[in-house]
Amino acid sequence: MVPSDLAMWPCAALPNAELGSRTTLRIGGSTEWLLEPADPEEFVAAWNAARERGFLPRVLGHGANVLVDDGLHAGVVIATERINRVFRPSPEATGEAGSFDPEPSGAVALDRESDPRLVAWAGAPLPTLVRTANRLGWTGLEGLAGVPGHLGGGVAMNAGGRWGAMWDVVERVRLLLPDGTTVEREREQCSPGYREGGLAGAICLGAVLALTVEHPTIVTERAKQFLREKNAVQPVTERSSGCVFKNPDPELSDGRSAGRLIDDAGGKGLRRGDAVVSEKHANFFVNRGSARAQDVWSLIVEIQRLVLEATGVELETEVQIWRR
Ligand code: EPU
Fold this sequence. Notes:
The protein is an alpha+beta fold. It has helices at 3-7, 40-52, 126-136, 151-156, 216-233, 250-253, 258-264, 293-311; strands spanning 12-18, 30-36, 58-60, 66-68, 72-79, 86-87, 117-121, 138-139, 160-161, 164-165, 170-176, 182-186, 203-210, 212-213, 240-243, 271-272, 275-277, 284-287, 320-322. It has a five-stranded antiparallel sheet with strand order 6-7-13-11-12. Strands 1-2-5-3 form a four-stranded mixed sheet, covered by helices on one side. A four-stranded antiparallel sheet has the order 15-18-17-16.
């Protein structure tokens, strides 16, 4: 690597960057290039620079829902880590959809009760968003308490669960289309569904979130309660990528969730290397040491086989798999 290599990118760039430590499973090899834009404009420039050089970049948020293959991944990964602003729409945007630019310094502060909306850029951590809403006493995001992703990934896959999902509060998104142009879309123009943001291949650069004014204590207590319920049934303190499989069509599975099917088929505790099917929740695979992607992959195939043989149901992965 010579310095001029770095100069070919319009933002911070790392050659041969390690990816495993950037995922919640702590598994995965490295990427030829890791680009780290600092704002949405740099992200677009990074995307277009990579495309011009013949790469189709992958986008990495908090790495909370990916299984990254071992070894060296050729090409470019763009990380949203540094694009982490959260702010209120400027007063001028009140009543409209809301600007994606932070308000200029010196702008009039809004009181808590007016315009309960937040603008978040793609790399804003979901826990930060939940905390911000709790503090302001705005309800709508409590269901995401304990979800360890970034806004961009959360919108792209409609992160959430029984207590609420990301798109419950999305009013508008700013998207990067595969051709390198950006657009803003109202929620009505998108078609989010179960674990699916409905962005048709576009990348989320940011979103305007519309919440509802309530009392800060009530909102905070509700978020805490959801977190307690979640901690009771999920291995939240272990290294995992959340649920590995999507819940199947209830008609085909007799209403049983993926976790329940795996549990009933005797999958809990099954192990490949350091990758283990959690004894607490069977749809979570945990890394109990230095598991390799190959271990997790073997476990996925094994569990799919077990459940298929026991019930005839084909489990489909929810976790995104980055093959080399
Ligand atoms: N169950 C078992 N054994 C298990 C796990 C669950 O019998 O090992 C049973 C439970 O007792 C319950 C049923 O299966 O009767 C459903 O389990 P749970 O309530 O934990 O929900 P889930 O369907 O397994 C979904 C989401 C989670 C989300 C939770 C809570 C999917 C694939 N999973 O899990 O989302 O946190 O509901 O809302 O939609 C994720 O997407 O990464 C994720 C963790």
